[in-house]
Amino acid sequence: MTETPTDETPTELRTAVRVLPIDGDGRVLLLHGFDPARPAEPYWFTVGGGLEPGETPAEAAVRELAEEVGLAATPDRLVGPLAEATIEFWFDSVRYLQQQTYYAVRVAPDPITFAGQDAIEHASIDAYAWFSAAELAGTTDPVYPDDLADLLARAVAALA
Predict the structure, then answer these.
(1) Gene3D superfamilies in the record, alphabetically (predicted)?
(2) 69 secondary structure, DSSP code
(3) Is 41 helix (H, G, I), strand (E, B) or coil?
(4) Which residues, other chains included, contact 45 with Cβ-Cβ below 8 Å and sequence gap of 6+?
(5) pLDDT tens, 110-121?
(6) What DSSP string describes 129-141?
(7) Residue 27 class from Cβ within 10 Å (0-12 exposed, 13-18 middle, 19+ buried)?
(8) pLDDT at 3
């Protein structure tokens, strides 16, 4: 069953960061996964997550990069914010209103590891891939955010 937000549905407010890890070929690393409440509807999405108490967005970006895909960076290597957005979505039967900030970072395509992921990430992320702008434009798979190709172009230019 797909839930639909209503005026009566409680909404969790969340501040988050999204990270665009970019390799030397201008490709972005994306994760593939699904909402545990809707496993038959997979999608590609950017690395990132919610800020912890007292954490800056740049600190959260570096932490999320390490936890979700095992890549190391420091806040001074981040470029951005590239964009900010407020989105509303459901995940694991919870309705969120999320303010998110996007950063980019140049990375070597080191071996990616899911070892630092928490239980919900392990249960809902099943793959990763590097996407070029052309591959993003050509995929028929859902990709979030919708304007990722534009963000990728801005990230590559900012990292040049």
Answers:
(1) Nucleoside Triphosphate Pyrophosphohydrolase
(2) H
(3) strand
(4) 30, 31, 32, 33, 143, 144
(5) 789 999 999 989
(6) EEE-HHHHHH--S
(7) buried
(8) 52
| Coil, helix or strand at residue 93 | coil
Architecture of the domain delimited by 11-159: Alpha-Beta Complex (3.90)
Q: How far is residue 155's CA from residue 26's CA, in Å, rounded to a whole number? A: 9
* Tally of CB atoms within 10 A around 154: 18
Rounded alpha-carbon distances, angstroms, from residue 56 to 105, 114, 121:
16, 23, 22
The reported pTM is: 0.91
Written as six digits, the tokens of 67 are 């936890």
Q: List per-block mean pLDDT (blocks of 10 residues) for the chain, which spans 160 residues.
A: 59 95 96 94 96 96 97 96 93 91 92 92 94 94 94 94
Task: Report the SS3 class of residue 38.
Answer: strand
Looking at residue 1, its pLDDT comes to 39
Which residues in 23-159 belong to E strands, given as ranges? 28-35, 38-45, 47-50, 79-91, 94-106, 125-131, 143-144
The 10 Å Cβ neighbour count of residue 38 is: 16
Phi and psi, residue 64, nearest 5°? -65, -40
